[in-house]
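YM 10:42: Putative restriction endonuclease domain-containing protein sequence, as discussed on the call
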Amino acid sequence: MWRATEMTAVDERGMTKYFEELEPPEGVKVELLRGEIVMMASPDLVHNMIVEDVLDQIPRKRWSRLQTQDVDILDEASEPVPDLVVLEREARPASGRLLPSSLSTMVVEVVSKTSVQRDYEIKRSIYAAGKVPVYLIVDPVMAQCVLLTRPVGRGDNADYQRQQVTKFGAPLPVEELGLELDTTEFGTFPNVRPHRYP
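YM 10:58: structure's back
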């Protein structure tokens, strides 16, 4: 007789296979998050400008800065697509659709009007489970950055031990990249209801 955990593993493997064969409509971002397929419309201009601003501040000579890159989280039925993945240039593989999370130094998610809970809870746990050293949440709803470091744990219980909140306008040191991000140009969403995260 199958236990519930065995059934879940089979369901998640099946969902992973289905996800790999899925062809989403143009302009739709699709992610697999713990066995669930999540589709999102194209991002807002504020969102895209923040991603570009962060990318521009990370030196290309040392770091690869990848957008729309699927990340493979070991032992998880998850293939998130962060807004930005940063890894050392020599760590970058020659090819492949999936980038192992172990190669990433930092992932960046810019909160959209509909992704608040996913970015602050689900992806926080997923990236920690994947041992991504730095997870940066840039939040134009609350005009803040949340820098998460020191991942611990496995599966749903994974989390980051260190959390630093920086308001837009203040410098944001990212020791793991050896730089300080200037957040003064980060835009915000007008007339969006505030939330209580992190």
